[in-house]
Amino acid sequence: MAVKDRKTRKLRGSNHHGWGIQKHRGTGSQGGAGQSGWYKQKWCKYSKYFKDIHGSHGFTRHSSDVDISTINIRDIERNLEKFVNEGKVTIKEDTYYLNLASLGYDKLLGDGKISHKFIIQTDSFSEGARKKIEGAGGLIESETKEDRDVIAADNTTENTNESS
Fold first, then answer.
1. Which of 44, 91, 105, 143 is most buried when burial is the number of CB atoms within 10 A of its CB?
2. Burial code of 29-52, b = ≥16 C-beta within 10 A, e = fewer?
3. Beta partners for 139?
4. Dist. CA 116–CA 93, nearest whole Å
5. Mind listing the domains of the chain with CATH numbers?
6. Is the pTM of this model over 0.85?
7. How far is it, in rounded angstroms, from Cα 18 to Cα 20?
8. Torsion angle defined by CA atoms of residues 18, 23, 25 and 26, in that order, rounded to the nearest 10 degrees
9. Residues 134, 85: Cα–Cα separation, whole Å
10. What distance in Å separates the CA atoms of residue 27 and residue 89, rounded to the nearest whole number?
C-alpha cells in the first residue's frame, strides 16, 4: 500500500482518525500504567477499591516475650491431694507448704474458696489471693524486687541506727 493511500495519511488534521469520539486503544481515559494517578484521574477507583493500601491504619500490638503461668486458689484446692502424693506439697501441723515455682507456676490468683491453711512461696500474686490466704490463717512468702528493696532499706536503717 502506498503511503498516500494510508488511513492515517488521509485523516491528518482530523481529531479522531475515524475512531469516533472515544479512544480506541482500550485504556480510554485511564491515564498511566500501574499506580500513577491514584490521587488524580484514578481517584474513584482508588477510593473505592484500594483505600487501605497507603498510610497507617490502627496499631499493632506486639506480643509479650514473657508468658506468665498462673494458678487459682480453686485449682490448688482441687489438686491438693495429688500435689501431696507427688511430694510437691508438704504438710506440717495442719499447714500446707508449697512453692509455686516447683509446681511450674509464676503467679497465684485469688479465684475460688480456701478451706486449708497454706504457706505459699511465690514471686507474684494478686491482692485477692493474698487476702484469702491470710484470711484462712496462711501466709504468702514472696521475694520480688519490691520486697528486696524494702529489706535493703530496712538493713540500711538498722546499720545507720547501730552506728549512731
1. 105
2. eeeeeeeeebeeebeeebeeeeee
3. 119
4. 11
5. 70-163 (3.100.10.10)
6. no
7. 6
8. -140
9. 25
10. 79
Q: Provide DSSP, 101-135.
A: HHHT-SEEE--S---SEEEEE-SEE-HHHHHHHHH
Calculate the CA 104 to chain-centre distance.
23
**Torsion sign across C-alpha atoms 86, 88, 89, 91:** positive
Residue that has been written with the C-alpha cell 474458696 in this structure? 113
Q: Which three cell numbers stand for residue 28?
A: 480510554
Digitized pLDDT (tens) for each residue of the chain, 164 residues in all: 788 888 888 888 888 777 777 677 666 666 677 778 888 888 888 888 887 777 777 888 887 777 889 999 999 999 999 999 988 899 998 899 999 988 889 999 999 999 889 999 998 999 999 999 999 999 999 876 555 555 555 556 555 555 55
Beta bridge partners of 119: 97, 139
